[in-house]
Amino acid sequence: MALSSVDKSEAMLHVWDKWSSGGVEYKGLEDCRKTWDSFRRESGRVLTLGWLKRLAETDGYNPNRYTIKGTTAAELCKKNIVREYIIENLLVANEPGIIGGPSKTLNTSVGLDLAVSISTGKPFLNEFKVERPKRVLFISGESGEATIHEDLMSVALSKEIKTSELTNIFVEFNLPKLDDPKHVDTMVQDCIDLEIEVVTIDSLYRSLRAGGGASNVYAMGDKLGLVAEVVHRAGITPILMHHFHKSDDHFDRPPKLEDLSQAGIAEFCRQFILLKRRMAYHDDGKHCLWMRWGGSAGHQGSQILDAYTGTRELGLTWQTTLTGVKAWGDQQKSSKEFEKAEEHSEKMKSILDSFHSPEEILSPSVIKSRAHVGYPHSL
Question: How do the domains of the chain map onto residue ranges?
Fold first, then answer.
């Protein structure tokens, strides 16, 4: 009767029928339907859901009561708990994650590469192995439909995937409010109905109404708790896109969790991918980024991500290369040494070309005046 007072639809009838089927006096759906149709407010008092809750509380029901339901350490150690990796050594299933970085560091593009990789089983950034394809929901509230459309096509092309094959990834442009229990419950239920296993939300600051509590770790912890508890309980892996609290021009310093803006975010995420520029961007479509990842499961790493996005004049694309930090440093050192040797060779050639005959005297003053270079100490 309480369910009927909330919603007399066929769907709610089936909810009641499913619950009733566990009773010893259950006689089938049609019998339940007759009783269901007999609930009419004009025939007497109707028991509402609120009244049902009040009766339960009178009988001792207390949803806010704290109870300890723990187990001994010995019993816990007996359990065979195996972590499931979505992406080998980079992303664990059913643990909240963050993709973070300063603005304009390809957060969304990397997030789309991750979503397409998980949904198709293709390697993430063409390097990290996806254990098995999963259905993914990508919710974008920043980039807009046109940008996501272009980026998706570029990412698919880079993985040699036909866009018609992207049936395992859903794209939504209406952001949920993660501090609203109804929004979170609805999102989770929709994900269950669509068999979604991974949901990416871009971006967190537009989904979480922190207000004046953004700098308060306790307030933020309470708001993020809905995602951590409700989504986790449903077996869905949430990945939140987030920004750093300030720009950092120290290109030689890798990103760290403390760079994430707003209090409590670093504490909330159980795994992360952080991006930051390794070199200044020159508006040529060439991006050199730090990429750090890690998590409470013990996975961690750091590499240099070179991404070429192209330009609108030359054509948009998505090409990525990952290089170990040490190997990248050695490459840069060799490149600088080569440039220095080339520069020295050009100077020496300029000096030698300035003389008309081998018999001329090579005095420092003659060299300086004719070659237009400083005194060659190594000569």
Answer: 2-58, 85-329
Q: What is the pLDDT of residues 228-248, one digit of tens each?
A: 788 878 899 999 999 998 766
Please list, residue by residue across 339-348, b when 16 or more beta carbons sit within 10 angstroms of its beta carbon and e when fewer do. Answer: eeeeeeeebe
pLDDT of residue 225: 80
8 Å CB contact between 232 and 169? no
Instruction: Give the CATH superfamily of 85-329.
Output: P-loop containing nucleotide triphosphate hydrolases (3.40.50.300)
Backbone phi and psi for residue 377, each to the nearest 5 degrees, phi listed first: -60, -30
* Whether pLDDT at 378 is above 60: no
Closest CA to 273 of 126, 106, 116, 154: 106
Say which DSSP state 84 is in: P
The 10 Å Cβ neighbour count of residue 1 is 16
Q: What single-letter amino acid sits at 127?
A: E
pLDDT tens per residue, range 65-85: 878 888 899 999 999 988 899
Those residues whose C-beta lies under 8 Å from the C-beta of residue 128, and which sit 6 or more positions away, are 87, 88, 89, 90, 117
Strand pairing category for 198-202 and 136-140: parallel
